[in-house]
Amino acid sequence: MVSEHIDDEGYSIFDAVRVHLELDSDLPTGVFEVSSEVADPAAHDARGSLSPAPPAPGHPPLPPLPPLPPLRGHVGDTGRGAPPAGRPGRGLVTHALVVDGPGTRHELSTGRNVIGRGTEADIRLPDTGVSRKHVDVVLDGDVATVEDLGSTNGTLVNGRRVTRQPLSDGDVIRIGHSVLVYRRDGA
């Protein structure tokens, strides 16, 4: 059932799906509570198998996410043919999002830059707390604006929940369990 749901929703998975059921006497008959997590690839045992994930009750913090290779060309290439806003050192400004942890840099293209977990996102994050199309960073001229796309878990900029907000260099965007830093370099 979980695999069918993954296929129906177009989710990307990075390992085998594992389901663990526990009886919770506090829930009424027929009601299920679901939690999910991304396995930590560093938690491999000596045979190369993943160690069991920690139990769901108490919802322990998720492990850091592994870096993702760029999906379309090099880092920052959104595959839409639009060049980045510019390159430092030429009097132009480069706008980018840096994923905290792995330090992956994604240069933003003029127009929309959709971030999410789904295959249609320009910047994909393997984070169960991120919606398929979670947030858009719109680059219009020299101004980058973050816009939540009606995500389930919302978007925080510098710790404040936002629906739409212009970004300044160094602003921290938190979606799901992922942290991105907006960088405006050059000029």
Describe the structure.
The protein is mainly β and 187 residues long. The protein has one helix at 2-9; strands at residues 93-99, 104-107, 114-116, 123-124, 135-140, 143-148, 155-157, 160-162, 164-166, 172-175, 178-186.
Keywords for this entry:
187 residues, mainly beta, six-stranded antiparallel β-sheet, five-stranded mixed β-sheet, 11 strands
What value does the Rg take, in angstroms?
Answer: 19 Å
The helix tally amounts to 1
Query: Helicity range of the residues?
Result: under 10%
Q: What is the mean pLDDT?
A: 74
Q: What characterizes the major β-sheet?
A: 6 strands, antiparallel
What gap, in angstroms, lies between the N and C termini?
A: 52 Å
Gross morphology is: elongated
Q: Looking across the biggest beta sheet, what order are the strands in?
A: 2-1-11-10-7-8
* Alpha-beta content class: mainly beta
What oligomeric state do the depicted chains represent? Answer: single chain
Proportion of residues in extended strands: 25-35%
Please provide the count of β strands.
Answer: 11
- Poorly predicted ranges (pLDDT <50, ≥5 residues)? 46-55, 68-90
Order of helices and strands: HEEEEEEEEEEE
